[in-house]
């Protein structure tokens, strides 16, 4: 086994996205590139079910059983498997973790449900982690969650298991509507505004890449689990909505919360005040439950939103430079 002298950093993307989410602008801007160019051994992870993670030992994506997972499986199986692999390949005993949105959520799932892995995490940088009910969810997203909830209740009949997959057809539609020179660009911008909110941070020249990267696919069950978190305002295990089945799985009629007091890894939280998915009150609630919090870091901008953490024109100076300082300082201590 060849060991690497560079400290390893694992990046995990957000909901419906993939590892290429970290590579939108290029080497001089993206956080993964900044860390790599400063001597860190960067690993870009892909959670099961997205465009780059569709292989299984025995199942194919055409088999409904392939899609029987939510973000619990991402945290309980996928993240620990990636950490184990990185530790085995590099020879380093600990890994720095960077997770955006649902990527932050699955770290909390991993560290709380499999607390032994806290000893292998040097630091967890959680960027706008989704764990409680957003205060101002847009109408289109509320409708999406309601549709997914209805679909999941009838999934055996409707046979809908995968949602928003990346395909040649979807990429062609993206190019039709979201190219900078397209006459349909105003519609693309309107949809983006309904979901995330338009800010001066958006570079319209990269919007096509943003939309294409964002739609990388996942399971309907994952979206339904996210909807359950929203409705319950609690980071809980998956609710089978059947007391008998919940009793078999959890020993109680309703799913338990993830015990965040077991997340003993050092954690830094990064958030903004204009994020429709993660508000300051929720960050405070999370911060009080984490026993080894390094700190909360709010973006000093009045318009910075959820997607701007990935594609904001000023994301480097407003967010990434702070993260680089925290990661570097933590490694040197």
UniProtKB/TrEMBL annotation:
InterPro entries: AB_hydrolase_1 (IPR000073), AB_hydrolase_fold (IPR029058). Keywords: Glycoprotein, Hydrolase, Lipid degradation, Lipid metabolism, Signal. It holds the Pfam family Abhydrolase_1. GO terms for biological process: lipid catabolic process. GO terms for molecular function: hydrolase activity. It comes from the Eukaryota. Residues 7-292 form the AB hydrolase-1 domain. Belongs to the AB hydrolase superfamily. Lipase family. This is AB hydrolase-1 domain-containing protein. It comes from Ranatra chinensis.
